Amino acid sequence: MADVAVQHSVPAAYEPSLFGTYSKKIGMWLFLLSDSLTFGALLYAYSYGRISTPNWPTPFHSSSIMNATFMTAFLLTSSLTMVLAVRASVFGHMKAVRGWLLATMACGAAFVVLHGREWSHLISEGLTLPVFPAVPGAETSKEFADVTKTVPQFPATFFGLTAMHMLHVTLGVVYLGVVALRRTFVPILLGLWLVAWLATPAYSPFHYGAHVLLIAAVVVSIILWLKPKVYDSSDIEVAGLYWHFVDLVWMFIFPLVYLMSTRII
Amino acid sequence: MDRVQIAIAERVAEQHRHHGKAQFFWVWGVLLVITGIEVYLGYQNMEPVRMLSILMALSIVKAALIIGYFMHMKFELSRMKWITMCSLVFCLAMMCVFFPDAFRIIKYGVR
Prior knowledge:
heterodimer; B: 2 domains; 0% strand
């Protein structure tokens, strides 16, 4: 039997990355590819329902379309501020990086607030899911009540798809908060959780949805406790990839869900 | 990060230094204009399949701008571009297999 001597003292030959970039960026791209299939499946499910249902509802009036257009503008602007944060980090302007990241978070938060307002409006009007509690004293419009009864696929796919996206945006804001503020962000996050939980009425889905922020605060605390670090330009670029992906997905949800269901008066 | 990772990060940073701020503002402006066109089309009383085709074409243009410029894919190695984008398009295209079934329901009804 031949003996093979392993020489530990010989340094390994340098082998450049196959993709010419660093490993965490490739890791993020792989995650985004898998996540795009999740959203792809949801968008295809929505489109399938849209095509196969002749009486597909068109419940979005101009106020909803206007709201969704502002949401889109906020997300596009957040992508601009994010790319400027990445650029500032490359030049080592860390104060500017923090400023641009906070601007991105503000745009993301504005998107979530506008989306929450839209959801609350639709639910109070009667477009709802069986799992959502009834809104006390709300005057249900016949149009939305009919939609919920006759085409239950519409609220199911609408709320499923947009909830998944809203969750991604919320976690994206948390991610950027950690990169920008590190440990300082944990008490802010807990404060946001308390405000979101106490300020929303008990019948609102956001009353329970706010606990996502509490779970995020726990996870973030564990991560920052186990691996405290100063985030460099590569971390900011990777965070940017995630944020742009969230923006990218909305570019398909907005026309497919809102514009294809516009009520033309 | 180890020595190799730092060297790669430096190379990536060097690529970024060549990008001007102006091009990002241009891309942002074009994305906003395309969004405006989409909203305008939303109010045109078009046949759904035709409207869906136009809106999806515009969304693909927007997605290409975001991936290319904001996510910097345009400046990556061609190997990276081809492998990631081809695998993504292939997997998403595979899901189109369900659409003929949706058209079947429209034509023959649910049984």
